[in-house]
Amino acid sequence: MTTSQPMQGNSTSTVLGRRLGGELIKLRTAAGLTQTHAAKALTGSTTKVAKMERGWVPMRDPDIRALCELYGVSDPAAVGGLLELAKIDRERRKAKGWWNDFPGVGAMHEYVALESVATSIRTWQVSYIPGLLQTPEYARALAKGGSTEGHPDDGEQFVAARITRQRRLTEEPRLALRAVIHESALRHLVGGEEVMCQQLERLEQATELANVAIQVLPFAAGEHPGMSGAFNIISFTEPGAMDVVYSETAFGQLWIEGGDEAAQRDKLFARIASAALTESESRSFINAVRGEM
Questions:
Q1: For 147, which DSSP code?
Q2: What is the residue range of 24's domain?
Q3: Bridge-based pairing state of the strands 176-182 and 120-125
Q4: pTM of the shown model
Q5: Which of 52, 104, 123, 280 is deepest in the core (most CB within 10 A)?
């Protein structure tokens, strides 16, 4: 887990790099081998292996194949998963994304970069509407309420960055989004009744997109498995294969990069979704809440 993006010279330790490095460490440990053994297989140094395992540098496919052979990993699916993760990480590192021009992204920089290359996102939100589904007015109200601090333009930069992120839902390749939203987020008057009416209408419109699924967990559900807090699950290939979990805390961000912990959140999300209304019921529920305003 980590709450930041550490740097070392010209190298950057990315979330995907650390995820891949962690997988290689587990395979090496299971094989009873050391970094010295790995270095010999790569005709390199232990320093190179250490940087790879810590996610400091992008990994080449030949190096990954050599290490898999050394560690006794021959399953094509397992090797292919590591190669795919390395490819995504390399693309992520070399890309100069739109977010680099938006100071309003702030601490969300790494998350937005991952979102730009993800194939699907599952999000459980308790207090507010997911960023990918927010209207400009709703996002602006959040910024005004204290989500951004410092320069006067930060609020508008925040709004512009948030709206730009939403292109992933309508431009190819389209991001698959599944959102489970607690009723409290629908009734919290962010920006006032008019802004919230527009926001709820936006949610209804989003349900018409084939790549978007929205469910509501109503107050009537009582106690539920999602009471511990909101989180996002970011996937890059098949669900569960390379998931990275992200959640915001009061003073930073929390990443879950380990396979087992990410798998636990995957199961938790499924339990939350099963307790929520169906997509059809949720659409009707959102419409009813909007009608009460």
A1: I
A2: 7-94
A3: parallel
A4: 0.77
A5: 52
